[in-house]
Write a structure and sequence with these properties.
With about 350 residues, this protein is an alpha/beta fold. About 45% of the residues lie in helices and about 15% in strands. The strands form 2 sheets. The protein has a 5-stranded mixed sheet with strand order 2-1-3-10-4, sandwiched between helices. A 5-stranded mixed sheet has the order 7-6-8-5-9, sandwiched between helices.
Length: about 350
């Protein structure tokens, strides 16, 4: 069982040494471009799609950035890379900046990609007829991407909100995409927190699975979390790095906001056509279907809503002792100063 309080900074030195060595061997910065090592908490998950699209559309390059996208099994692993120094910026969930603030560390989100978490809590085919609500999960096995990930934190909160103690459910890491799908379909877990396109694929192949929470829309977020605002995936970095690289931060934010605007102006099919085949999978129609269902979660402008940040802090405090007992100035965990608003 993975404890919700288990530190997400374990093995930092090992991860960092491996990645630094790898980066030293493979990274080649193009003349005139600023090299940025961008750790992504699961590049094949749709919740991080704008990070990849910005590269495919050429927006990083147009902004003078040579973006080295580093793919990790989950947001906690991406954070480890940033803490260890093998990444400059993380494409991960906003809540990690608050978790770090509780540890007295300054991490700042500077562009928001998702206004909703975009995750779905779904049963395995084998457990669908036994689990009707989140309250039924006592004594069951639940899958999350990685230990300490945002998917685990959100699940812990939903369990507590439905009267289920966190330690009454066995939590196990199942990764994302193919590994998460396999864990669900083979019945290795009773339920799992998954993102699209994994959810849409599981649902299409197993129509009988039951959705216990859908965090892709405002209505779903309100039903599961009791709020209409919950900022999710962002780009964040250490406060010191942002102060030392203000122009680079501005360029990164602009590349992402341009991507978000482009997504609003194009159809799911057109967006899918720009997404690498390795992330779309073999079934293009399924990916387009997943995009249609997930489009409401994407921010139209990259702006962080202040009320949403307070909701995230409150939710974290409900499931994490270190956040509950810390005095945190949430306004220092994000900034909109790099977002151009007409």
């Amino acid at each position: 069982m993975i404890s919700a309080e288990r530190t997400i900074l374990s093995l930092v030195s090992l991860v960092s040494s491996v990645l630094i060595g790898s980066a030293a061997c493979t990274s080649r910065t193009e003349p005139g471009l600023r090299h940025v090592r961008l750790a992504v908490g699961g590049q094949n998950q749709m919740v991080y799609l704008p990070t990849t699209l910005a590269k495919e559309l050429g927006f990083y390059r147009e902004e003078g950035i040579d973006a080295e996208l580093q793919d990790f099994a989950g947001g906690a692993k991406a954070l480890q890379a940033l803490v260890g120094g093998s990444a400059d910026v993380v494409s991960g969930f906003y809540d990690h900046t608050i978790q770090m603030a509780a540890d007295g560390r300054e991490f700042v989100a500077f562009v928001t990609m998702l206004r909703f978490p975009g995750l779905v809590l779904v049963t395995s085919p084998q457990s669908a007829d036994k689990l009707a609500t989140i309250a039924d999960l006592k004594g069951r096995i639940a899958g999350v991407t990685t230990a300490g990930s945002s998917s685990q934190m959100l699940l812990t909160y939903m369990l507590q909100r439905n009267g289920v103690a966190a330690d009454a459910v066995s939590i196990t890491a199942i990764g994302s995409a193919a590994t998460a799908i396999a864990a669900l379909e083979h019945g290795k877990v009773d339920v799992a927190m998954v993102a699209d396109p994994a959810f849409t694929l599981v649902h299409r192949r197993n129509p009988g699975v039951r959705v216990l929470a859908d965090l892709r829309t405002a209505a779903g977020v309100n039903a599961a979390l009791g709020t209409h605002a919950y900022p999710a995936s962002v780009l964040y970095a250490k406060g010191e790095w942002i102060r030392d690289n203000r122009d680079t931060t501005q360029r990164l934010a602009r590349a992402i906001t341009r991507t978000l605007a482009w997504m609003q102006q194009h159809t799911p099919q057109e967006i899918a056509d720009k997404t690498p085949k390795t992330f779309r999978g073999e079934d293009d129609a399924l990916y387009v279907e997943a995009l249609k269902a997930s489009m409401p979660m994407f921010s139209p402008d990259g702006v962080m809503a202040a009320e949403g940040t307070e909701v995230v802090r409150t939710l974290l405090a409900g499931s994490m002792e270190k956040v509950r007992s810390a005095t945190i100035d949430v306004s220092k965990t994000y900034t909109n100063e790099f977002i151009h608003r007409p």
